[in-house]
């Protein structure tokens, strides 16, 4: 029997189980006379004995006794486990010492090794051994079991490690997830490495001495196979790892033996050729003997490997623990690459193929990584034909794996297969894999980019190089054409994102993608004469590629959707970035004017070319080069402005001037002068047109050509006013005059009103920005306030314009402007002058606009459409849906930020079910944000929404109280209530005030008007209780009782005793009460309430009720008739919510809290009520303070 050393208990993360080990004397161990009953008595006695016996058995070798300083004391490592866990560097010396001990006494040394594996499993129990005697242990197979002794609380496992029967004893409460191999931290990670190294070194050092004695390996293999069959995870995991590493070491050993045998055979042939008849054959006899020795060793190792494979691998590669399965797959892949003659066969490859379908991503990942090592060697390809045929489709589909790392490794594996083995992938497979360059996950896209570059682009270069003989041939030409052709084919099928394609290839083809000189030469026609001219589509794609590469080089960051937060660049990356920016600026400041001149009439190409200057860094450009080419560049931009009227082109030109001028105006002076000159010309032209065609009495008197000219000037000025502060040109006054005339008198053309509305908005924003920076005078701020109110009035009037496009634009501008000029984010002094909150009339108009433009159903067209018409209509529907989502989001932002009243959200929530697919995410986010702002008001908004829908339903049913179970309208309201209840989540404590408020308002609404009916009829809203019951499951149990007591105050009317009333009330009552005991306890408490309250002694289960005067109830004040006792709670109660007792101390109890929060009149007595409810309730329902 060998117990765990005392020092192990002091290692990190070890737990005390209260069970101490005893060490039996050496003679007892060797004679095998240690009985199980004796072990039980030992544990029952819980005696604690040091391991002097164990220390005496040790050899006083310095290698086996490394000293380690802990807490100022020298601790000696006396066991293999301690030596390995302390991380002794000279692992070979440790193994050599153990081999010497084995040669002296193999039983003691083997028991030491056995105990090492047991301790590595995290077992703090003991190991006993008895020698196996077949004559006395015929029932040995029956002993190979795991049992549990209830008396001692110990678990036993008895198994055979030939020639011994081992019994492992450990406490049953041993944590199955807390053993060395799974513990976190660098300490235990190093232990795992040392453990694997120990197993490998053990085989390596034993190969020349004791490995083939038919005793050592048989015992170790029996031990590991027995532990691998245990139900304890720690034993299975540790023994499987040890067995697999042991087999790996044997594989390496047998490979070295085969090499030595091969060399010996060659030497034998050489010696045989040298031998003559006159010489003896002594040398040949020695070589022959050595050869037979190698063959015998080879056979012995083969038997060992078979035993481990069949005894451990075949049992554990399908283990329930994914870590164990991953170990098996990782090692078998290692065996295949190390010893392919034995393991690289279909009989072994099938295990990797089967595990490709494993549910755990770690196991699938190990399969792919192992296959990468196999397919990475061309010499092994001839043995993979059947495997490739069987599992190729699975490998291709794994690129769509849910785990990103698995998908990346699958892509890399397929790339190796395509490179090293011809016809491994079909053209259809390659086309599928190429499309992953557009994936949002960047590592997968980069792997696909490497696959695309090596399979398609590089291949095109080789074909082109083989066919061309011209010495001036440029390889980049073939690469670019292949890349452009691929993108055009992808664009036709699905994708049109050059930026993502460039980012995927950025790491593999930097020389190609940064060759801007050659790209622009192709566009300008300055390339070699033998090059074929580019088509219009090729030119368009090439310009997009240039823009994408410039952006990637300047920003050094993946495009939107592929990268998270910007990482800090290293010094090397910063150097590359600066060099690229310098190249971009110096090259394109020269070439870009030529490109703009060539493609000046092409809107799309010019727009992309005008995006390039935003990545210029003029400080890096030489002054001489800048002065030489800047004038030409600015003149070309001015020419583009004069030729185009498209918004995208004009905005791009305005951004070019803004970039070159600098954000703070510190840019080149030539750029600022050129911009001011251009704006002067545009404003002068606009004023001249308005003076020519404007009639004070009749409005705009212009022909079609004059209107078109005014529209062009307004578009150009709007684009520049959006990017530049043009306040000194005072553009707001004439634009406001133009927009106001449309409101007051004759209508103006929409093509004029659209840019005028946007330009006036930009002018106001620049004025407001100046005011926020405290650079404006008080008079300017007062004028700004006048302009803001005037502009809001204009936008409000435009909400009813005849043009839908203009109405939606005015709505978007108005919502954004209200967000800006509301009280959010303004300084105290500026609030008084600029603050403008929407009036109730404006709020109603905004809500009506949303109802009409977002939720209104559009008429359907009943006519047969062609394929093109259907496709066009679908695109129009998508565009319209996107615009509606923008409108709804803009209005919901006003609700969330308290610009409009939160109750307006009730009208939005009504459409939650019907428009869930289109606007469900926006409505749900609005509900979440409003709840964060004010959870009580948000709850009132929800119940208000349901009340309005119920009233609408009741009017359609002629105010009938009958219930139709198949009424779709009523069922839709119930389903909406259920959806609302789901939004409160699982934390009932967090949402208890909100849910209680919903029940309180719902009950009051259901019994609304009960006092005026005088028992003649039922309340009109009584069936609302059915809807309210959807929120009952969100109440805590004590809150249900309190809500039920609140409900009983309204159920004492004689009219409510009718049978037709029972259904609604009984349904709601059932949702609140779990049993009749809760009801009886509540009613018994209510019977003790003071007489000045309106009591309710009715027991619904008995069908009786008290007679209460309706006159008395009608004369009772509202606060007394429906007392707000719902928020009353006691601080000390008979029932407590588990883990929430501490929350009671945060709330004051009694009348003081009530008066502070609810302003109860002095005439209402609350003391008795608090005392009574203290016995029945324990936690505040509504009156609790809101969470911050």
How would you explain this protein's 3D organization?
Strands 1-4-7-6-5 form a five-stranded antiparallel beta sheet. Helix content is 62%, strand content 3%. Residues 1-77, 134-138, 463-473 and 1084-1188 have low confidence and may be disordered. Strand 8 (694-695) and strand 9 form a beta hairpin. The chain contains 51 helices and nine strands. Helix 23 runs antiparallel to helix 24 and helix 24 runs antiparallel to helix 25 (571-598). The protein has 1188 residues and is mostly helical. It is flat, with a radius of gyration of 43 Å. InterPro entries: ARM-type_fold, Cohesin_Scc3/SA, HEAT_SCC3-SA, SCD, STAG. Residues 313-398 form the SCD domain. Residues 50-65 have a biased composition (Basic and acidic residues).
């Amino acid at each position: 029997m060998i117990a765990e050393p005392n020092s192990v208990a002091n290692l990190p993360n070890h737990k005390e189980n209260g069970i101490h080990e005893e060490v039996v004397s050496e003679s007892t161990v060797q004679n095998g006379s240690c009985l199980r009953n004796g072990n039980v008595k030992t544990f029952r006695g819980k005696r604690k004995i040091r391991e002097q016996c164990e220390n005496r058995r040790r050899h006083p070798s310095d290698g086996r006794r490394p000293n380690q300083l802990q807490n100022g004391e020298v601790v000696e490592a006396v066991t293999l486990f301690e030596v390995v866990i302390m991380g002794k560097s000279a692992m070979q010396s440790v193994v050599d010492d153990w081999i010497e001990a084995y040669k002296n006494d193999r039983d003691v040394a083997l028991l030491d090794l056995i105990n090492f594996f047991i301790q590595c499993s995290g077992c703090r129990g003991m190991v006993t051994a008895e020698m196996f005697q077949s004559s006395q242990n015929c029932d040995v197979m029956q002993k190979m079991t795991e049992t549990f002794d209830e008396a001692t609380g110990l678990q036993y496992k008895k198994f055979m490690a030939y020639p011994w029967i081992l019994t492992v004893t450990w406490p049953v409460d041993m944590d199955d997830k807390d053993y060395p191999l799974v513990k976190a931290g660098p300490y235990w990670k190093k232990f795992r490495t040392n453990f694997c190294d120990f197993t490998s070194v053990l085989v390596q050092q034993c190969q020349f001495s004791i490995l083939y004695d038919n005793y050592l390996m048989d015992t170790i293999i029996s031990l590991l196979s027995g532990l691998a069959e245990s139900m304890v995870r720690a034993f299975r995991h540790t023994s499987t790892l040890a067995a697999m590493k042991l087999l790996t070491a044997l594989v390496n050993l047998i490979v070295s033996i085969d090499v030595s045998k091969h060399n010996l055979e060659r030497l034998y042939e050489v010696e045989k050729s040298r031998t003559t008849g006159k010489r003896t054959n002594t040398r040949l006899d020695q070589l022959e003997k050595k050869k037979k020795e190698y063959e015998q060793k080879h056979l012995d190792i083969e038997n060992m490997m078979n035993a481990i494979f069949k005894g451990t691998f075949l049992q554990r590669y399908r283990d329930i623990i994914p870590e164990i399965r991953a170990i098996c797959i990782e090692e078998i892949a290692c065996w295949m690459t190390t010893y392919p003659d034995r393991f690289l066969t279909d009989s072994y490859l099938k295990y990797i193929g089967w595990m490709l379908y494993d549910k755990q991503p770690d196991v699938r990942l190990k399969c792919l990584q192992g296959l990468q090592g196999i397919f990475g060697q061309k010499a092994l390809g001839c043995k993979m034909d059947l495997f490739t045929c069987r599992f190729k489709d699975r490998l291709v589909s794994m690129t769509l794996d849910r785990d990103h790392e698995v998908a990346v490794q699958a892509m890399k594996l397929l790339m190796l297969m395509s490179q090293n083995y011809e016809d491994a992938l079909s053209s259809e497979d390659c086309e599928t894999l190429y499309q992953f360059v557009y994936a949002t996950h960047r590592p997968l896209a980069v792997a696909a980019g490497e696959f695309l570059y090596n399979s398609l682009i590089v291949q095109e270069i080789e074909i082109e190089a083989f066919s061309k003989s011209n010495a001036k041939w440029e390889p980049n030409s073939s690469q670019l054409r292949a890349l452009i052709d691929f993108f055009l084919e992808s664009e036709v099928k699905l994708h049109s994102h050059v930026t993502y394609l460039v980012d995927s290839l950025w790491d593999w083809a930097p020389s190609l993608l940064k060759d801007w000189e050659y790209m622009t030469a192709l566009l300008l026609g300055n390339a070699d004469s033998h090059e074929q001219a580019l088509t219009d589509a090729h030119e368009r794609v090439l310009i997009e590629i240039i823009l994408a590469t410039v952006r990637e080089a300047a920003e050094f960051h993946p495009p939107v959707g592929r990268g998270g937060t910007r990482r800090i660049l290293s010094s090397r990356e910063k150097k590359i970035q600066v060099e690229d920016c310098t190249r971009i600026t110096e090259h394109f400041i020269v070439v870009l004017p030529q490109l703009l001149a060539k493609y000046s009439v092409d809107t799309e190409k010019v727009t992309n070319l005008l995006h390039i200057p935003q990545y210029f860094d003029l400080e890096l450009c030489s002054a001489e080069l800048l002065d030489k080419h800047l004038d030409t560049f600015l003149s070309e931009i001015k020419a583009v402005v004069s030729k185009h009227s498209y918004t995208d082109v004009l905005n791009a030109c305005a951004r070019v001037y803004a970039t070159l001028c600098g954000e703070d105006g510190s840019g080149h002076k030539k750029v600022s002068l050129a911009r001011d000159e251009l704006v002067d010309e545009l404003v002068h032209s606009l004023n001249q047109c308005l003076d020519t065609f404007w009639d004070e009495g009749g409005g705009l008197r212009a022909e079609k050509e004059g209107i078109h000219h005014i529209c062009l000037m307004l578009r150009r000025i709007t684009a520049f006013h959006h990017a530049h502060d043009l306040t000194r040109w005072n553009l707001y006054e004439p634009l406001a005059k133009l927009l106001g005339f449309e409101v007051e008198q004759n209508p103006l053309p929409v093509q004029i009103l659209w840019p005028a509305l946007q330009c006036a908005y930009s002018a106001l924003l620049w004025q407001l920005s100046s005011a926020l920076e405290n650079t404006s005078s008080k008079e300017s701020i007062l004028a700004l306030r006048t302009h803001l109110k005037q502009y809001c009035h204009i936008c409000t009037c435009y909400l009813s314009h005849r043009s839908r496009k203009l109405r939606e634009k005015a709505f978007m501008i108005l919502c954004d402007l209200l967000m800006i000029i509301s009280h959010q984010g303004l300084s105290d002094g500026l609030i008084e002058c600029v603050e403008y909150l929407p009036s109730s009339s404006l709020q109603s108009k905004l809500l009506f606009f949303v109802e009409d433009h977002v939720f209104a159903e559009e008429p359907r067209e009943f006519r047969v459409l062609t394929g093109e018409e259907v496709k066009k209509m679908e695109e129009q529907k998508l565009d319209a849906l996107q615009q509606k989502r923008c409108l709804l989001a803009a209005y919901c932002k006003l609700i969330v930020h308290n610009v409009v009243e939160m109750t307006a959200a009730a009208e939005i929530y009504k459409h939650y079910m019907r428009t869930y697919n289109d606007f469900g995410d926006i409505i749900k986010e609005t509900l979440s944000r409003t709840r964060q702002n004010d959870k009580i008001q948000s709850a009132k908004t929800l119940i208000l929404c349901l009340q309005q829908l119920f009233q609408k339903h009741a009017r359609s049913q002629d105010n009938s109280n009958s219930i139709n179970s198949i009424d779709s309208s009523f069922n839709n309201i119930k389903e909406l209530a259920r959806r609302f209840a789901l939004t409160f989540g699982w934390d009932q404590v967090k949402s208890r005030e909100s849910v209680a408020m919903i029940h309180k308002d719902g009950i009051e609404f259901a019994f609304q008007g009960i006092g005026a009916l005088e028992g003649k009829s039922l309340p009109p809203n009584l069936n609302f209780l059915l809807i309210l019951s959807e929120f009952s499951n969100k109440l805590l149990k004590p809150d249900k009782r309190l809500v039920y007591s609140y409900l009983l105050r309204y159920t004492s009317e004689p009219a409510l005793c009718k049978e037709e009333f029972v259904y609604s009330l009984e349904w709601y009552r059932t949702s609140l009460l779990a049993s009749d005991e809760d009801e009886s306890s509540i009613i018994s408490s209510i019977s003790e309430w003071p007489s000045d309250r309106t009591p309710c002694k009715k027991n619904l289960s008995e069908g009786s009720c008290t007679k209460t005067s309706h006159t008395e109830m009608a004369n009772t004040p509202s606060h007394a008739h429906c007392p707000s006792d719902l928020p009353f709670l006691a601080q000390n109660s008979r029932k407590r919510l588990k883990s929430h007792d501490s929350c009671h101390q945060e709330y004051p109890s009694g009348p003081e809290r009530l008066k502070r929060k609810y302003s109860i009149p002095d005439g209402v007595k609350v003391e008795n009520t608090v005392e009574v409810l203290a016995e029945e309730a324990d936690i505040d329902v509504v009156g609790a303070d809101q969470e911050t």
